[in-house]
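[Q] Does anyone have a clean structure-token version of this?
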Amino acid sequence: MSKPLGIMLIDDQPERADMVSHQLRAAGYHLLVQLNSAEDLLQQVDARRPDIVLIDIESPDRDILDSLSIISRENPTPVAMFSARGDAGFIARAVEAGVSAYMAEGMSAERVAPAIEIAMAQFRSYQQLRKSLERTQQQLQERKTIERAKGLLMAKKDLDEGAAHRMLRNLAMNSNATMLAVAEQIIHHLQTNP
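[A] Here you go.
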């Protein structure tokens, strides 16, 4: 049996929050904390490390979105936001800030479980895309470094591209290092000893 999701519930209407927290517990979720405002949201998320944050604030403001942006960047956490604000501009800003699921109606006990599932699925999908992008960017940067080292070898040693590549590869094999590590050493050496 898997561990129940730890939930941080932020709701500025205590009666609704009590109803939702009861529903969450009945559905098998673990309620870490129930807050009536998003004040100190960064510290709360950092201290509690929830699996998901549920937010239903009557008038979510820029401070909440700024906090969510920082959380998304520094401590990625799925967030489901329920709000009466249904304007496209605000929803777009909320999603950019890291909201995984946005429900343009207030929170209700019946809507919580599906919202959690949507937020978790969207969050996982986004994290996979983000990791894939980071890997691709890293590979591109590594390729640029290797190409730069080849270019320096071609210029300094009067080699063609194939010969420069073979030299890099041979140096890497002989030193039991990666081509990237050898390329970085060559760039450093040729720049400091022109």
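[Q] Thanks! Anything notable?
[A] Residues 22 and 109 are 9 Å apart (CA to CA).
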